[in-house]
């Protein structure tokens, strides 16, 4: 069996010595607030409190437009773009625009048969695009 490696400062267990070492560096940075679910350390209690819902599936950030809940504020902010007319992500192959980068990536893969490594966020004039 695997021998657990235990952090003597907070009691968290790790599967490898390397993981314990990496975790130990968070204590030397004076990050006293430790997530009991994953061991991630935070400088401020508020940062830890904002992080915990990512593990507990609490949906404390609610979209005012549709009522959908999210675990983090950043997830909510990304979702709000769905309700916006703003579509800053443009496919350079066909010119379609998307509200989120992941939608552009999915589009390029499914419609054009490939996954661009870095779909652009810049918008080119339509006359500069080639359609194929």
Automatic annotation (TrEMBL):
Main location, first listed in the record: nucleus
A Pfam family this chain is assigned to: zf-C2H2
Location of the protein in the cell: Nucleus
Annotated GO CC locations: nucleus
The entry's keywords: DNA-binding, Metal-binding, Nucleus, Repeat, Transcription, Transcription regulation, Zinc, Zinc-finger
Domain named C2H2-type: residues: 5-32, 33-60, 61-88, 89-117
InterPro entries noted in UniProt: Znf_C2H2_sf, Znf_C2H2_type
Molecular function GO labels: DNA-binding transcription factor activity, RNA polymerase II-specific; RNA polymerase II cis-regulatory region sequence-specific DNA binding; zinc ion binding
Record's keyword annotation contains Transcription: yes
Similarity remark: Belongs to the krueppel C2H2-type zinc-finger protein family.
The name this protein goes by in its record: C2H2-type domain-containing protein
Species for this entry: Graphocephala atropunctata
